[in-house]
Amino acid sequence: MRLFRQMNRRSGNGHAGSGSAHVGTGALARPVERSSTALSFTALLVLIALSCACRLDMHVQPRQNPLSHSDFFTDQRSARPLVEGTVARGQLREDTYFYTGKIGNNPGDVMPFPVTKEILQRGRERFNIFCAPCHSRLGDGNGFVPSRGFARKPPSFHIARLQKAPVGYFYDVITEGFGIMPDYASQIPPRDRWDIVAYVRALQLSQDATMADVPAGQKIPSEPPEFREPGSGATLPVLAPESTSEETKPEAQKKDDQK
C-alpha cells in the first residue's frame, strides 16, 4: 500500500507544473552520472592491471647467471664462446714488432718510436717500480729481493752478453719472462715495456761512458741539483728552476755578484 502511494506521488509530480518536471529530470540524471563514474573507475582498474602485468614481464624474465648451467645449448654452457677470429676493438695489433719485439723469430734491434727525454723519464719510473726490486736501480742485479735470499741473483745488464743483446730481446723477456723471472705482460702495457727497454739501454751506456760521450759544455761529474724546497720526511723536495737570469737571483746573490 505504501509502495502504491509513493508511485502515485511520483506520477503526480511528473504531471505537475514546470517545477515538478525539473525535479523529475534531476532524478533521472543521477543514475546516468553514477554509471559513467563506475565505468571510468572500471577502466582505471583495467589500466592498472595491464600496467602491472607489463612491469612484471619486464622485471621477471628468463636469464642466466655468468658461467651457469644451461639446458638450452647442446654444450650446456650459458656463456657462449667468441666467434672464431673475433678481435676486440683496439686489440687488432697490426704492428707485430711493437707487440712482440721480434722480426720473424729473431729479436729486433730498433726502437719502434723515437726516444725522447720524456720516454726515458717514463722508463725510469716504470723500471724503478717493477724492475729495481730485483735488478737494482743501476741494473747490476744487486736489488733488495736478491739481498734477502732470492733463489737466484739476476744477471747484471752491464755484462758483455746483455750489452750486445738487441732491444727486442729485453722486450721479449719482459713480455714472456725468462728462467725464474715471471712475465710482466699483465702488469706493464706494451708502450711502457718499450720505455723500460729504452731506459735499460741508457743505464748500459751510462756505466761505460767515456769523456768522448760527454756533450760539449757539460761538467763531469754533473753539478748537483739545486732545491727550492728541501722537503721533509713527508714531502718531496722541489727543484729550483733551471733559469739563472738576474731576475731569478736572490738579492744577496746579486750584491755578491756586483762586488
Write a structural description.
The chain has about 260 residues and is mainly α. Among the domains are: about 1-60; about 95-210, Cytochrome c-like domain (Cytochrome Bc1 Complex, Chain D, domain 2, Orthogonal Bundle), CATH 1.10.760.10. The protein has ten helices and four strands, in the order H-H-H-E-E-H-H-H-H-H-H-E-E-H. The protein has helices spanning about 1-15, 20-60, 95-100, 115-130, 130-135, 145, 160-165, 165-175, 190-205, 250-259; strands at about 100-105, 105, 225-230, 240. The strands form two sheets. The chain has a two-stranded antiparallel ribbon with strand order 1-2. The model is unreliable at about 10-25 (pLDDT under 50).
Please specify the SSE layout and strand pairing.
Elements: H1 2-14, H2 18-59, H3 96-100, E1 102-103, E2 106-107, H4 117-130, H5 132-135, H6 144-147, H7 160-163, H8 167-176, H9 190-207, E3 227-229, E4 238-239, H10 251-258
Antiparallel strand pairs: 1-2, 3-4
Helix pairs in contact: 4-9, 8-9
